[in-house]
Amino acid sequence: MKMQELKELIYQGEKVDIECKKAEKSVPKSAYESYSAFANTKGGYIILGVREDKTKTDPKERFIIQGIEDAPKQKEDFWNTINGNKVNINLLTDDDVEIVEEGSISLIVIHVPRADFNMRPVYVGENPYKGTYKRNHEGDYHATEYEIRGMIRDQNPEGNDNQIIEYYTMDDIDKETLRKYRQIFEIRNDGHVWNALDDKSFLEKLGGYRKDRKTGVEGLTLAGLLMFGTGQAIRERFDNVFMDYRNESQVTADIRWNDRITYDGTWENNLFNFFTKVTPKLTEDLKKPFKLEGGVQRIDDTPVHKAVREGFVNMIIHADYLMDAGVLKVIKKSDAFEFTNPGILKLPLEDIYRGGNSKSRNPHMQTMLRLVGFGDNAGSGFPTILDVWKSEGWIKPELIEDTNLDQVTLMMKMEKESDDESAEKSADSAEKSADSKKMKVIDLSERQRQILTYMDAGVEYSTEQVAEKIGLKGPRTRQLLNELVNMELLACIGTTKKRRYIKV
Fold first, then answer.
1. Are residues 260 and 208 in the same domain?
2. Residue 146's domain is classified under what CATH number?
3. Nearest-5° angle of CA 59, CA 40, CA 330?
4. Which listed residue, 253, 366, 393, 446, has the most CB atoms within 10 A of its CB?
5. SS3 of 74, please?
6. pLDDT of residue 27 exceeding 60
């Protein structure tokens, strides 16, 4: 990374992914707290050798580049510490720590990647409940016990919903909800051997009831209770979970919504009931075309219907129901759908957009819904949504991760792309078909254009290969590559340390 590029980062000011530290003579203790915070949030850069004057508001006056003493020694000390017992895991490669020099000024730049879900929490010291940090716009903060427990839960590759909820039995199942589910199951799976089972045995096959072979403890699982339980039982055990649907398609200054489904004592507020009550309301206004096949046949299930249901399913299967507070919120607007669930993303955004890898928190709920025709276990759900929206000419659905509130919102806007956006895409498509090496000028830096010119279509490149070709260090190159991924000019494949990039 060149000093000019580094200055551009510094003068953005400290934010969720940039932290500046004075560090004149040694690496400060707080640098390792920032390392933990970035790893547990979205990743970022720690820059050593920058003093902050909090009396100033202009970033160019607030952040003073003064450099550090004996940069090679500080770099060595940092590596010795990060590879020791100061933190529980080292996520960094050699390219993630570099010295940047200009004249007599030396800075150290540390790029911290976001830790994979099976590596979090990343913490300082030996106790995760004392040494785990997260990041917000105000800086680093001690993660709460609930946040840390959530990270530990997410390490489980089998998900969260198979755990037995002690003292909850078949008496806590709402028989009408389960009857409704089994009726749909039988219609879709005529002749299935499970159809002859009693309710308890049927739930066992679904993962809704389980007996622990080691302890002998048995009972409803989290999936079984939340999907099919009585409202009272769910509220007793999961008083943190709140389900809310609002139709805001015709709101005015005086009317906040024109339809709402939330707990009101008139229905058993389990997840399957919520899903089956809300889904028809979500899709009732969507176009249902006619198809001529020896007569006029109504098609009630279009790709758009399926995509909306997929968004709803994603909300349910990715939610963290064990957080101290969580809202499952579904908002219908005249031109959009919003699905919000508690719990941050388990996978990087680029992996989710690419699909093919499903890491839901609630795989048994996912199976329960799939067996009655909703959702997909293969990790293709979100790419399906993207494809449908693209085919309609609507703007790309967006996943918005709020690491402060520990929630994710899927925005599905039924808005046509602007004429400028459409023209830009058409022009870009024409360029590609002609195999032109011209690059879009808008939003592309010289370095980004350099990368795209170097990369051949269909060939996978490592960060190291690209860095060597364009003459930059690994961390800065990785940042540029990820920016191009976000622009949908590149796709990435693989895990954090073995990630490769391909031109699309």
1. yes
2. 3.30.950.30
3. 95
4. 366
5. helix
6. yes
3-state secondary structure of 307: helix
Report in angstroms the alpha-carbon separations of 267 from 158, 231, 261, 264: 31, 8, 10, 7
Q: Answer yes or no: do 353 and 394 share one domain.
A: yes
- Cα separation, 246 vs 256, whole angstroms: 9
Q: Which amino acid would we find at residue 228?
A: F
Place of tokens 């909820």: 165
Q: Note whether residue 165 is domain-resident.
A: no
Between CA 398 and CA 279, with CA 271 as vertex, the angle to 5 degrees is 60
Our CA angle for 353, 359, 365, nearest 5°, is: 115
Q: With bands split at pLDDT 50, 70 and 90, how would you rate the model's confidence at 377? A: low
> Tokens standing for 448?
């980004």
Which domain range does residue 136 map to?
3-154
Task: Please indicate, yes or no, whether residues 405 and 424 belong to a single structural domain of this protein.
Answer: no
Same-domain status, 264 and 366 = yes
Q: How confident is the model over 177-200, as pLDDT tens digits?
A: 999 999 999 999 999 999 999 999
Whole-structure pTM value: 0.77
Do 45 and 113 meet the contact criterion of CB atoms below 8 Å apart?
no
Q: Name, in order, each residue with C-beta under 8 angstroms of 441's C-beta and a sequence gap of 6 or more.
A: none
Give the Cα separation of 93 and 210 in Å (integer). 43
| pLDDT 10s digits, 434-479 | 333 334 334 577 788 888 888 877 678 888 888 888 888 777 888 8
CA atoms of 481 and 249, how far apart (whole Å):
39
The helix/strand/coil state of 291 is strand
Residue 162's closest CA among 102, 95, 212? 212
Q: Are 354 and 384 in contact (CB under 8 A)?
A: no
Exposed / middle / buried, residue 148 (Cβ in 10 Å: 0-12, 13-18, 19+): buried
Q: What is the CA radius of gyration of the chain?
A: 26
CB contact at 8 A, 232 and 170: no
DSSP tag of 334: T
Whether residue 322 contacts residue 153, with contact meaning beta carbons closer than 8 Å, is answered with: yes
Residues 196, 202 contacting (CB under 8 angstroms): no
How many domains are contained in the chain?
Answer: 3
Confirm if 270 and 321 have CB atoms less than 8 A apart: no
Q: What DSSP state is assigned to residue 350?
A: H
Residues of the chain with pLDDT > 90: what percent?
Answer: 60
What's the 3-state SS for 377-399? CCCCHHHHHHHHHHHCCECCCEE
| Domain C-terminal end among 413, 442, 476 | 413
**Which position has the token pair 């530290």?**
21
Do 367 and 456 share a domain, yes or no?
no
* Same domain? 366 vs 341: yes
The residues, any chain, with a CB within 8 Å of residue 257's CB and separated by 6 or more, are 246, 247, 248, 251
Residues 346, 159: Cα–Cα separation, whole Å: 11
What is the distance between the alpha carbons of residues 240 and 229, in angstroms, rounded to a whole number?
15
